[in-house]
Specification:
Shape: extended
Transmembrane segments: 65-88, 109-133, 209-232, 244-266, 278-297
Keywords: Ion channel, Ion transport, Membrane, Potassium, Potassium channel, Potassium transport, Transmembrane, Transmembrane helix, Transport, Voltage-gated channel
Radius of gyration: 27 Å
Number of domains: 2
Number of helices: 13
GO molecular function, one term: voltage-gated potassium channel activity
Pfam family, one: Ion_trans
Domain Ion transport: 66-304
Order of helices and strands: HHHHHHHHHHHHH
Structural class: mainly alpha
Length: 311
């Protein structure tokens, strides 16, 4: 997460360079508050927290920070890859699948998960401890404390990724949910946490919400209108055969067609000219519709990228 997002009182999306951040009024005021040895102790503690925080969240701050970020990214990718390997051996994970005889057994997967949990649990706890909003000596942030930390959804991903191991450890695998184990895949977002492009994309998507909502209204109107039309001109009364047997099924056909996917599981009846003509109209409407959200997001991303390059 960019440093500014953790300490800015307005949770601003305007980026600041590391030098601007360190030399900002925020740090200058926090360092000189108080007098005597207490002030020096406070400044030393805050400076130490700063260094650790910047080391963990800014890969460009030093070579060590870059290597640390690379190590965390590799560990996250490897843990997700092992989870994929686990599915190759069936639900029992006993290396019984003849096509994959060299896969680890269940204890091997457990040991691997233990190693990654040992890596990621302290990493999460350290980030929580050194998070700038938790520096209680700093009066400026006393009211906020955990709020910025909780607002960072990447932190929630980290929590969700390590929880399955502890639930299995406490309650046993028999009582844990499979969906919770799949939460380990959320570690893949560690690859995006400290990448500036992630926040540029999020900024572009956030700026696109209002105009895209207009496109979604248009999309809803297309689906509702053509669903009724197709159901009227080409109804199907045999539910054992694919066709427009109800409005929900017809709406599914319209959505798939507008999205230009076209599975082909439901098609207009052969010989029904009106149905096929309206299907062509749906296809054309879908082409026009898709051009709007793509253009909106593309424009906002280009604007956000230029702002990032100029800052």
């Amino acid at each position: 997460m960019p440093v500014y997002a953790a300490i800015s009182p307005t949770f601003s999306t305007q980026e600041e360079s590391l030098d601007e951040l360190v030399n900002s009024t925020f740090y200058a005021e926090s360092m000189i508050k108080g007098t005597g040895t207490g002030a020096k102790k406070h400044a030393t503690t805050l400076g130490r927290f700063e260094k650790i925080f910047v080391f963990m969240v800014d890969p460009n701050s030093s070579r060590g920070a870059s290597l640390y970020s690379f190590f965390i990214a590799c560990a996250a990718f490897t843990s997700c890859f092992i989870l994929f390997l686990q599915t190759l051996d069936g639900p029992n994970h006993q290396s019984s699948e003849p096509e994959y005889p060299k896969l680890p057994n269940e204890s091997g997967y457990y040991d691997a998960d233990l190693v990654f949990t040992i890596i990621f649990t302290p990493e999460l706890l350290i980030r929580l401890i050194i998070w700038p909003s938790l520096w209680h000596e700093h009066e400026y942030l006393t009211e906020r404390r955990l709020k910025p930390f909780l607002r960072d959804f990447f932190n929630w991903f980290d929590v969700a990724a390590i929880v399955p191991f502890y639930t299995d450890l406490i309650f046993g695998k028999e009582k844990s949910f499979v969906i919770m184990r799949l939460c380990r895949l959320l570690r893949i977002f560690k690859l995006a946490r400290n990448h500036s492009g992630t926040y540029i994309l999020l900024r572009a998507i956030r700026a696109s919400v209002a105009p895209i909502s207009v496109a979604l209204i248009f999309f809803t109107e297309i689906v509702l209108f053509f669903s009724v039309v197709m159901y009227m001109v080409d109804p199907s009364y045999d539910r054992n055969k694919p066709g427009f047997s109800d409005l929900l099924t017809t709406g599914y056909f319209v959505v798939v067609t507008v999205a230009t996917i076209g599975y082909g599981d439901i098609t207009p009846t052969k010989g029904n000219v009106a149905s096929r003509c309206f299907a062509v109209m749906i296809i054309m409407s879908g082409t026009l519709f898709l051009s709007m959200p793509l253009a909106i997001i593309g424009t906002e991303f280009d604007r956000a990228w230029k702002q990032h390059a100029e800052s």
